Automatic annotation (TrEMBL):
InterPro entries: CarboxyPept-like_regulatory, Plug_dom, Plug_dom_sf, TonB-dep_rcpt-like. It is a multi-pass membrane protein. Belongs to the TonB-dependent receptor family. Gene3D superfamilies: Carboxypeptidase-like, regulatory domain, TonB-dependent receptor, plug domain. This is TonB-dependent receptor. The keyword Transcription regulation does not apply. It comes from Cyclobacterium qasimii M12-11B. One of its GO terms (cellular component) is cell outer membrane. Its main location: membrane. Keywords: Cell outer membrane, Membrane, Receptor, Transmembrane, Transmembrane beta strand, Transport. It is found in: Cell outer membrane.
């Protein structure tokens, strides 16, 4: 599976370079609830539904235990424009809950007191890390996101990344095509090594072609596959001769048996394609005839 990874990585590096630029900008987008205004009004709304609406209208993500009973409590508000801090104070006062903002994440919990029930803690730490495959090869182009946010980055050509995350409770979600998504708690670490496990089912659902990676269901052309085990012991001095007679629709013509003599490659016969045909193998264009 190491060879499969290397093909994926090379093909996707160009695609992810634009994502890298966009996501690094998002990391600088952290605001206090004091500075964010929201225009909202509702009648007898469950707190769980209210939190979902606020997530749509603001950059914040609410985190809570789904078993907490306060989520079923209802809250009403005449439509108005106010800061998120003022809104949270109103909700806290009527429903005996406490809010704690850590960057863009707002945790919600029950409380018996009516003191300062909106706590703001915008603190970040810088972390670095490396994403690898099980055999230790680095993975370029892997996505690294802060869970519950759109803050993230992608690994560079050496599989390395850096990111600013909340000082407390940060969880990274790491993903790459052909591998299982992995959630990694930062847990006071500044340097991480993340090993992704291969997703065999996912690899069976995609096809690597000369100009990209596509899902099988989206592929419009015909694909033939020759396994290495089938040709490992064949005595041949060229890729063309190894493939001869082993892929449907592929015709190899050898005008000469001399060592080093070239071969003519035809796909689905000479009349099926007009103009030049391009041959792409192991990251290189072999011919255009």
């Amino acid at each position: 599976m190491g060879m499969t990874y290397s093909v994926f990585g090379l093909l996707l590096q160009v695609i992810f370079i634009n994502v890298l630029s966009a996501t690094e900008i998002n990391a600088q987008n952290i605001k206090s609830v004091k500075d964010v205004q929201v225009s909202i009004g509702f009648e007898s709304e469950k707190l769980s539904q209210l939190f979902s609406k606020l997530e749509e209208k603001t950059p914040f993500v609410f985190v809570y235990d789904t078993k907490d009973s306060f989520l079923d409590k209802r809250f009403s508000l005449v439509k108005q424009t106010l800061t998120m801090e003022d809104l949270l104070l109103k909700i806290a006062k009527e429903n005996k809950v406490k809010f704690k903002q850590i960057n863009n994440i707002i945790s919600v919990s029950s409380t018996a007191t009516l003191g300062n029930n909106v706590e703001i803690s915008i603190k970040e730490v810088s972390i670095t890390g490396t994403v690898t495959s099980p055999d230790g090869k680095t993975i370029p182009g892997a996505t690294v996101l802060l869970k519950g946010t759109n803050v993230g980055t992608v690994t560079d050509l050496d599989g390395k990344f850096s990111l600013n995350v909340p000082e407390e409770g940060a969880i990274l979600v790491v993903s790459f095509i052909g591998y299982l998504n992995q959630e990694v708690p930062v847990a006071n670490r500044s340097i991480l090594t993340i090993v992704l496990q291969e997703d065999m089912q996912s690899l069976d659902e995609v096809v690597v072609i000369g100009y990209g990676v596509v899902k099988k269901e989206d592929l419009t052309g015909s694909v033939a596959q020759v396994e290495m085990e089938e040709v490992r012991d064949i005595p041949a001095n060229s890729v063309e001769r190894v493939l001869q007679g082993r892929a449907a629709g592929l015709q190899i013509i050898n005008p000469s048996q001399d060592p080093g003599a070239g071969s003519t490659v035809r796909i689905r016969g000479g009349s099926s394609l007009r103009g030049s045909k391009l041959t792409f193998s192991s990251g290189k264009w072999l011919s255009s005839r």
